[in-house]
Amino acid sequence: MEEQFVAVVQFIKESRNNAIKSVNTELINLYWNVGGYINQQLSKSNWGEKTVDELARFIGENHPELKGFNRRGLYRMKQFYETYIDQPFVSPLETESQNVKSQLDAIVSSPMTQLGINDIRSSILVKISWTHHLVLMSRVKSKEEREFYLRLCIKENYSVKQLERQINAGLFERTMIGNTKLSTPLREIPEISNSLKDSYIFEFLNLPKTHSESDLQKGLVGQMKNFILELGKDFLFMGEEYRVQVGNSDFYLDLLFYHRGLQCLVNFELKNDKFKPEYLGKLNFYLEALDQDVKKPHENPSIGILVCNDKDSEVVKYAMNRSLSPTMVAEYKTQLPDKKLLQDKLQELIEGND
After folding, report:
1. Structure pTM?
2. Per-residue pLDDT tens digits for 306-329
3. Beta bridge partners of 236
4. End of a domain among 75, 110, 127?
5. For residue 97, what are the contacts with CB-CB under 8 A and spacing of at least 6?
């Protein structure tokens, strides 16, 4: 009977989650329509700037139960509409149901359809909350960066706090700059650029500038939730000091994960100093042990990530050119990066490729 009771509870939770999603969809679509209506009335000079103030006052006095429609809220809705109106992902492919809706709109015309404001309930904009959108509009400047975080929020199911942390950590810039320190076998994996990073930010550990590899390892294990957030939610933790046996000898891998998307084991080896080419030999040995004795037949070859405190890009490049294993060298920092420096470096790379 208990299993049946659990099933009922699951039905309740799923229905409640669906209801919350439906409410959010309608809310985002409402804000889009209100913002679009205001935008077009102002752009056609039907309204003056003070008209928006009058609208906010009218709603507040006559409909006090309607929250969020003060002057500031209305202008945020207008900004929301203006931010995304020219983006291709806002206009989803037409479905049969949308065709029917278009026919109904032609019969029963509303102020929104008269102005050409489209329904966005089928777009990705409704898959995150209004608070997420407020963060993206206030914290992100370029449309490319905004779409990057929008899609990442959906994929990783970020909370607002997690989204803000990733923006503070310069994830967009690091992702665009990164993935250049890969071995040749790793470059041949199509999904790799969306799965692994070449730099990690561990500011949540509060480590001093001088720390041991043991401090780093214990800190990451103790803060596994934050560590997974930095890695990506496809990573599943399998263990620290993971033991593999080769011949009569035992070897211990710092941190072992399984990646659901790549369907392979991922071994993180931690170094609290600058990258040295000899570190790769040990990592390659561990990957061979994993593939021989731990990897299941249906899984892909294991990946090794050497996480160092610092690295010389030229040394890494030379070392990686002869590496036959799927490995990469990543760098970690214990403080949030200077976003301005990251943005300048990204701009240099963009201009260098022109």
Report:
1. 0.76
2. 999 988 888 988 888 877 788 888
3. 258
4. 127
5. none
